Amino acid sequence: MTGGSSSRSGRIRRLRRIADRERAPERGDRWTVLINHAATSLTALAAVAALLFAGISSLQAQDELSNRRQELDIAREGQVTERFTAAVAQLGDTSPDVRLGGVYALERIMRDSPKDQRSIVGVLSAFIRTHCGRATSDRQGLRDAVAVTAAATAVAERRPHRDDEELVNWSGCRLTDIAVEGAYLSFSDLSGVTMSHTDLYSGDLSSSDLSRAVLDGVGFDGVNFADSVLAGVDLTKSHPPEAPNVVVFLSDIEFPQCDLTRTNFSRLGLSHIDFRHADLTDANLSHTEVAPESRDPFFVGRTSFEGATMANTNLDGADLREAHGLTVDQLITAHFTPATKLPAHLASPDITRWATTKPWAPSSP
Questions:
Q1: Domain of life here (predicted)?
Q2: Cβ–Cβ < 8 Å for 239, 221
């Protein structure tokens, strides 16, 4: 009994040792797997840490770059401020030459710093109003006129999208020798201004006030006057700068919805002029000529009166045969005489019988 038990116990121990030897590789495989998993996890953690470090470094670099840009912007602003202050100081100098240098300095700043354009236009306009009346025939007066002309040219040549409207106020100023292609003077106060020997061809003077302006030798070829006020303006002295002795109103002018009351157009050539919905009450168009196509180098188109108000408009002797948009109602309210040459559709006896021989006079204000 005892011997049999010992024998069985021995076999059990041997079987256990065999089983342990067989399980040993399995335990080793599990440890290997665990170690490999741990290594993979550590590698992933290291990669994440590297990415975090790179991200932090990138953010720090961006912050440093942003700070550097801010420092450069501040430095640049400081330089612009110094240049602006120095230029304004030059405008107040007693020497006309120094003032002229200040004008050119402000013009340069206006090109370099768009956001300062509004302030500079205001300063230059104030300078023009202050000095425009000093122009005389002596040497000092001529130098003053040069600086004023330079300032006006700089304002007229500015880029319109950089500032607000209604900035320019040259009311009552005397301006001369300005030549700017595409001049931008929209929404400007030019009431009572005196302009001479000036060319604003293809310019934009829409929504501006030119009432009571005196225009002597001013070229307006292609200018847009839409919604402007030219009440009381005498345009009979306007002419091409290259032909100072020729009295002619240039072509391609836009006057839609303008206030042209008491404006003097007498004895001018009107070619391709847009008077649509303009107020020509008491305007003087006597002996004007609406020129046909290709009649003259200055006459390159036709003129439209569509919707224009023509109450007491003086048409005595005017040649309107090429006019567009002229109606019976407009003609009857206007002042026309037997000397008025009408378009074919208005030249019937039923209409011409309304012609008057009485002298024209503007209505009482």
A1: Bacteria
A2: no
